[in-house]
Amino acid sequence: MESVRLKIREQYNEMSKAEKKLSDFVLSDTKNCLGMTAVDIAGKSGVSSASVIRYVQKLGFDGLEGFKLALAATDAQNDKEDMVDPIISKEDDLDTLCRKMDVLVDAAFQDFFYQLNKDALKKAINKIKKARRIYLVGIGSSSLPAYDLFHKLKRADLNANFYQDINMMVEFFNYIDKRDVVIAFSYSGQSQEVLYACGIAEKQGASIIAVTRRRDSPLQDIADICLHVPDNEKVMRIGAFTSLHTSIMMADLLYMGVIQENLEHYEVELIKTRKMVAGLKIKK
Predict the structure, then answer these.
(1) Quick one: average pLDDT of 167-182?
(2) Which of 67, 96, 113, 146 could form a disulfide with 61 if both were Cys (CB 3.0 to 4.6 A apart)?
(3) Which of 129, 83, 115 is nearest to 246 (CA)?
(4) pTM greater than 0.70 (yes/no)
(5) Which domains does the chain have, with CATH numbers?
(6) Beta 134-137 vs 160-162: how paired, if at all?
(7) Which has the closest alpha carbon to 256: 146, 155, 115, 152?
């Protein structure tokens, strides 16, 4: 059964004002909601009872009782209080900011593992293992998980490549072929620089692995394998929060899957690299 919470969070940004009020109430007070009638929920949310019925139908349920049963099933796995769109406001004190971030990240990771396609992840790991060269692509906040994965793979002595300058990256794609893999990070799936680089790689015959949100996009159309992160953050936002955390989580899963088979060898190499930089650390 699909998580009702995940469905609400993914659709939240496109909801009407009344639907957002209902979503806020349902996710912040789920237990009480389960025992309420449409009239009760409407009163608590500040909307009409007709809006409640339209709301559950829009989410794919025939009526309120079916919605509450599905909500109870998914809620049983998590008793922690939840909230929708926990963005900062001028009135927030530091405790409130910390609580909002705690809820935000916790919900993002729950959604991440709920919707994770392990078969696609396994295929991506196998592709990377067999690759001659691995290219990491991403711009803006999406360059952070790309660079982090590049560093981890490079430290394990894999032939990984990352360049902040997309122009330079595309120049080097002249030498790419079917033996190589491109891992493209783009939450929106619409970043022109990433799409252009992937278009060149596709023409050269390289495999393309996309880490992007679970929504139709040009990047998904061009990728051979799509690794989805939850679509619960606006593309227009004050900062990349959940998208950054979940993209890094996906990068870490790729890394661990790649090195797992020869872990003893990689452990030796990782210890060597650690010793090499030991002289750069201040000793107490």
Answers:
(1) 94
(2) 67
(3) 115
(4) no
(5) 4-79 (1.10.10.10), 117-276 (3.40.50.10490)
(6) parallel
(7) 152
- Across the beta sheet with 207-213, the strand order is 160-162, 134-137, 181-185, 207-213, 225-229
The two three-digit tokens of residue 8, written as one number: 């609400």
For residue 120, report the phi and psi dihedrals to the nearest 5 degrees: -65, -40
Dihedral sign computed on CA atoms, order 7, 242, 238, 211:
negative
Match 């293992």 to its residue by tokens: 129
Phi-psi region of 48 (alpha: psi -120 to 50; beta: other; left: phi over 0): beta
Distances (CA, A) of 265 to 34, 97, 262, 271: 53, 43, 6, 10
Q: Tell me what pLDDT residue 200 has.
A: 95
Q: Model confidence at 67, in pLDDT bands (50, 70, 90)? A: confident
- Helix or strand (DSSP H, E) at 204: helix 192-204
List the end-to-end C-alpha distance of the chain, in Å, as a whole number: 54
Q: Of how many residues is the chain composed?
A: 284
2-39 pLDDT, tens digit each: 578 778 877 887 889 999 889 888 877 777 888 889 99
The helix (H) or strand (E) run that includes residue 30 is: helix 30-33
**Sorting pLDDT into bands at 50, 70 and 90, what band is 229?**
very high
User: What pLDDT, on the 0 to 100 scale, is given for residue 83?
Assistant: 41
- Short-list 37, 91, 46, CA closest to 23: 46
The β-bridge partners of 91 are: none
Closest C-alpha among 78, 65, 61 to residue 34: 65
The residue-averaged pLDDT of 238-244 equals 75
Give dist(CA 110, CA 78) in Å, integer. Answer: 9
Give me the half-sphere count of Cα atoms (radius 13 Å) on the Cβ side of residue 121. Answer: 19
pLDDT number for residue 104: 76
